[in-house]
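Holo model, NDP. Inputs:
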Amino acid sequence: MGRSVSPTLKRPALASIAASAEPTEERGPPATGKRGAIIGRVTLTKKPESRPAPASWGLSKRGIPWEYAAAPESTDHIQIRREYGLFIDNEFSPSRPKASFEVINPATEEPLAQVARASKADVNRAVTAARRAYETVWSRLPGSERAKYLYRIARIIQERSREFAVVETMNSGKPIKESRDVDVPLAAAHFFYYAGWADKLEYAFSGRRPRALGVAAQIIPWNFPLLMLAWKIAPALAAGNTVVLKPASTTPLTAYLFAEVVRQADLPPGVVNIITGPGEIGMELVRHPDINKIAFTGSTAVGKMIGRAVAGSRKKLTLELGGKAANIVFDDAPLDQAIEGIINGIYFNQGEVCCAGSRLFVQESVYEPLLDKLKARLSTLRVGDPLDKNTDVGAINSAGQLAKIAELVASGIEEGAEIFQPDCVLPDRGFFFRPTLFTGVSQSHRIAQEEIFGPVLSVLTFRTPEEAVEKANNTPYGLSAGVWTEKGSRIFKMVAAMKAGVVWANTFNRFDPTSPFGGYKESGYGREGGVHGLGAYLDLSADGTNGR
Ligand code: NDP
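Output:
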């Protein structure tokens, strides 16, 4: 089935933690050019034979008697332009001076498009367009009119959902079944939901006189490119603001597809502007004096820089940053159901999820049966071509992220934890990493403290609820958590004790536009989603000073 690598392996003979070759008695020297995937040699004690199917499948013990046929999603209907300009005032235009960078498919390492690299002057152009649209059109429209545009956008996303899903998968590396069934429908749902609020702001905040803030700068990451765009743009427009959005440099393509939707929906020019460029361009946007609100999702390090840059200004700020969520399984939990929740919690989107359940806490009395089931289930995950409809774990978004995952996994081995990875065969090209599980993890290990942002689970144990709470809260982050138990009273007790913005009970990674999402501590502040997310784009003060 899988293989366990002895915790005594030390550098330089570190385990191969994500090799793509078939398992052999001894893996040879690391393949040069396989980016960040192989960091040394590994010696397997025994060549694994065919993979046994989990007992629950009722198959023979000799192994899975069949393989899935390839089921690739068609890309024939997808038109990715060779070049994308900046989207300002409803027009695509080259950056000034003209400069661009390449965007690739992380599953094949092949180029997808050249994308304009904005300059400081372009940031100014975009903010000026957004200001003009705010002053002359958008802030003057009644909420019911703004709602019509948002409904239109939602419906067009639905109509073009297959196109969005395929482009998202090609650009980000996430499995098509996730972009098709999660990212795109949820993005449309956010526009539908906030369209409903656009003409009801006074009802949402009774006793207040809600006013739009003005121009919002929005910076989003690469793990959910379209969904994060929807989380940001839908409430901003519903509240009456205009926006300048900067997608992550590795994943701008669905944002530019969305720009086409903006035109198709006949949104007035300047209401939505999209510019691409490196982090420093994001910072130019943050510092621009004509910005009223900043919404950022990304790393805690950059979030802190933005917080410092905004300090002392009148700009309103929300930060949605990293996480190191605890997923806690009590001994009365339905184990099979919990297994699915654990798998979904950490291997969904290759674990590149800020609220991923990356620390599993198991009550000692069920540790062994749960671990057996977990390893068996891990061995059935299909890793590979993200466009294949049967793929469970796709490509890591970039070579840099793959290297970061590999480095943290190597630290886990060095610090004495025991690694388990299924013997899946990884594609020859692209940035892939085996689903990984660590046991024997202690609270002080880096893999238990730092956000890995990859398909890597650290398993720890506890005896009492108090111990579970203490261990779960022992992290600088506070974004999300999960609790698995049969007892409703225990759920309520745990939810109250956990320092996390979202706590799921007997489920994990559930998202809904009506539900607020956000963190405590180093996971940021402010909420997105629901009425809370709407309030983040409004001045709710009595005197129109936004409380400053
Ligand atoms: P970043 O925080 O660097 O990137 C997120 C967004 O911020 C991108 O659009 C990025 O642009 C932009 N950005 C980068 N630097 C600045 C800056 N100085 N000022 C303004 N905007 C900036 O995350 P990474 O992509 O580097 O990922 C690093 C780690 O962060 C991951 O390994 C993961 O642990 C964590 N992360 C957490 C996310 C979350 O959802 N909480 C999302 C993404 C990452 P560009 O792409 O051009 O660099």
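The pocket of NDP is lined by residues 219-223, 246, 248-249, 278-279, 282-283, 286, 297-299, 302, 305-306, 320-322, 354, 401, 404, 451, 453 (CB under 6 Å). Confidence is low (pLDDT under 50) at residues 1-49.
Archived with the compound record.
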